[in-house]
Amino acid sequence: MSRPAAAVHRVIKAYDVRGLVGEEIDEAFVADVGGAFARLMRDEGATQVVIGHDMRASSPSLATAFGDGVAAQGLDVIRIGLASTDQLYFASGLLDCPGAMFTASHNPAAYNGIKLCRAGAKPVGKDTGLSAVSAEVIAGVPTHDGSPGTTTDRDVLADYGEFLRSLVSLAEMRPLKIAVDAGNGMAGHTAPAVFGAIPSITVEPLYFELDGTFPNHEANPLDPANLVDLQAYVVETGADIGLAFDGDADRCFVVDEKGHPVSPSAVTALVAARELGKEIGATVIHNLITSRAVPELVAERGGTPLRSRVGHSYIKALMADTGAIFGGEHSAHYYFRDFWGADSGMLAALHVLAALGEQQRPLSDLMADYERYESSGEINFTVADAERCVDDVLKAFGSRIHSIDHLDGVTVDLGDGSWFNLRMSNTEPLLRLNAEARTGEGVEEIVGQVAAQIAARSEAAM
């Protein structure tokens, strides 16, 4: 059946499908999405689709309905059941077929969604298939004249863990105690399969019970409030390191032995150095709001740094176009050529554990090698006129500006090791600020001046 365009576009977004269960997304809707996706993939030569889902109460039935839509179009369905998003990517690569992951990542329990990929975990976004899926769901998915596909179940969890461990040298590690906060998300399912087979590691689990209502805290470690429990738990257990995963366990955040968060930029630099040890001169991608320490360290280690816009679709496209060995983002997404160019927080965690375990220093000392600047983190301002706010900020900094670029929003280099980026949100009336300087005082000065100009503009508009 046909569907209202506005309702479809509200749920099928630029990079995935996401909405309120029962109001915006239900079994009938995802069956249509499955059918449209199957037709698109069938036209490209696919014969089967692999499907995984997270621990949300709505996920199993939605995944089943999607699979029914796929099978109705003549493609076979392989169900891997409970999975992290990077486990689904692994299955897509292993089986060389398109995939669908049912998850709303760190969104509240009332939401669910679908992350789609082509064979080999290649992304499907607005310009690479989602627009075609939307159009067909709106018009009504045609009935397939041939025989329906088959549906089979396959457990790939052990294979996933073994594959990740094969990519990182773990043999020379000293004994480590690691505290892992799964946030009641899918890391509670995957972490035992990955870490449990490493003799030198003892896991101290926190919130491993799968619960899509997220009873302890939001499964979004990017928010510092959601790291507080892990920070305390690391100190309480005497762990050497803490790892926090988001709801679908594709992002990983790190806490040192003192309970202090480690910047994802520092993790990016560390993993980049390790990957460059395999291939001197290789390209490493970083988004434009990671620390300047990342491209500096990549160049020092003989690599070629490549700057990208913020967002997984841009990073994955560059990974494919350039053959980059690794890519990292400020949001703790880490991309690996050895993992089909897709992101895996679990694989990044293994690299950090290996780097920590192959030497004797504590994590805080080790990571100091990769921290060169102070940063503000991402600060959001609610604004009525983002463009005029940006203009006011640029005028205020005036002659201090060394250079400006517009790759993603506006990035201002102040020429003394300090810089800031202002980006407009695509979906909300927000300006997002990221600033970096050699000292904390320098960061505070930049943030204060930007905030003052935005406040003055807001007052003038009242």
TrEMBL record:
Q: Which UniProt keywords apply?
A: Isomerase, Magnesium, Metal-binding, Phosphoprotein
**What InterPro entries does the record tag this protein with?**
A-D-PHexomutase_a/b/a-I (IPR005844), A-D-PHexomutase_a/b/a-I/II/III (IPR016055), A-D-PHexomutase_a/b/a-II (IPR005845), A-D-PHexomutase_a/b/a-III (IPR005846), A-D-PHexomutase_C (IPR005843), A-D-PHexomutase_C_sf (IPR036900), Alpha-D-phosphohexomutase_SF (IPR005841)
Q: Which cofactor(s) are needed, names only?
A: Mg(2+)
Q: Report which residue ranges the record marks as coiled coil.
A: none
User: Residues in domain Alpha-D-phosphohexomutase C-terminal?
Assistant: 378-452
Task: Give the matching Pfam families.
Answer: PGM_PMM_I, PGM_PMM_II, PGM_PMM_III, PGM_PMM_IV
Q: Which organism is it from?
A: Mycobacterium deserti
Q: Record's superkingdom? A: Bacteria
Q: Alpha-D-phosphohexomutase alpha/beta/alpha domain location, by residue?
A: 11-128, 159-259, 269-373
* Homology family: Belongs to the phosphohexose mutase family.
Query: Can you say what this protein is called?
Result: Phosphomannomutase/phosphoglucomutase
